[in-house]
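pasting for ref. prot 1 ->
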Amino acid sequence: MDAVAVPLSDLTRMPEPQQVYAADGTRLATYTWGDLDAPVVVIVHGFASNARDNWVLTGWVRELTRAGFRVLALDQRGHGRSEKPHQPEDYSIRTLVTDVETVMDAYLVDDAVYVGYSLGARVGWEVVRDLPQRIGRAVLGGVPDGIPLARLDLDQVRAYIAEGTPVSDTTTQNYIALTERVPGNDLSALVALAEGMRSSGAIDPDPADAPTRPILFATGSKDAIIEGSRALASAAPDARFFEIPNRNHFNAPGSREFKEAALAFLREG
């Protein structure tokens, strides 16, 4: 039988977001796909991305629903169609973790698996550790082992926003390019996020207090944080590590090998 061509627009179309309100009143845009009675996978995107950019355009939602999962996603605060506060105090790691728990509660999800990338993986470390009775297993991709966004030069970004001053720091240039690549991003909100996480006092994953549920850590072979991610995997009592071949931090989510490894791992549960 000949394959039926599916228009790209059908594969990347987003449902209208359902609004969930965080404990502090911040409005969070959430999305769901798949059979309502299917096992749930909670997916959480990275910095300067959103649910569509990180998970829909890269094929994750399509593959997860084909595998029989119901997918629950959110645009993290400061991203996508969620509210974008400009105050650093609105972006502690604990606040981002609580947002995920609030979304799960709003959808009455008591039992799920978790997939996060970059910032979403850092948040996932905390979610899986805090809710072992609700998260059966997790995939944490590109998880940083130190201060998130530590290499971002905040003063240069502020000058760029305020006066258009050229940015000289290469890493900061890359972050700005990443932010401006995704329509709807608010650079001031993402600067507040970076500053808030740095000052929150709880931003480093603690290897001595690692999540105990089964976890697949996955990081690109060309990602500068790979050894730190590998160290976190070694610290977790029930974890394995997958090196995503020939991928860096920014293009790893699109890797077919990454998706295949994650799906195989999730099916073990």
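and prot 2 ->
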Amino acid sequence: MKLKKHMVEKPWGRTDIPSAFGDMEGRRIGEVWFEGDESSLFPILIKWLFTSEKLSIQVHPDDVQAKARGQASGKEECWFIVDAEPGAVLGIGTTKALTPTQLRAASESGEIEHLMDWKPVKAGDFFFIPAGTVHAIGAGITLVEVQQYADITYRLYDYGRPRALHLEDAIDVSNAEPYVDARSGNVDAGPLIINSSYFYVRHVTDAGQLAEMPTETQLALIPVDGEVFVDGERAVAGDCLIFKALPKITFGDGAQLLVAW
């Protein structure tokens, strides 16, 4: 089953979204969410992000912190870079450990922008972002995000945009420190294998790699390049398909697929 697309306008979004995602009608789209109907809800949220400017410097709470604030769950996520313009960067963690007092002062003054660890990125890079990680996505990036099914973000700094900040909550849940999570790399150097308490993600380029996928759980198939045929149905970037058992998949030349569950 192909999931429906939900377009989300953002000030940092783009108007040149690939036509396979649908007609954006000139809107500045930053996120495309994939949604099932009430009878087929998928327990994790899958998005594409398209950036023309930096996103806010932000943080997400863990489950305990979110529930203490009346939310259903926290938010852990991972990113797979589909495309990146020359010089594109991600901010993941800070260059040094900051106390809550230091983090507040840096957020209020704007110095936090210069304390972020801005990492150059290219297609095929991937990163797991634990709850509490201070982070920001830079301009000129197209990525797929797989995350807990939660829409909860606390902004620390937003480059002067007229949007609300959430300093109290953000500082309380932040681990403002260098990023050291080993679940990161580039698929050219080794397979993307994300294991977390909430979801799993694999990068697949041929049918033989599908033998490692589970056979008794609901799977999301996300084409990121080229075309694949799933039980004979063509799928390309811009599609997301859900199955309860692994279907027959035929890969076109250069096709790449993310599998999440």
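The chain has four helices and 20 strands.
The CA atoms of residues 34 and 235 lie 14 Å apart.
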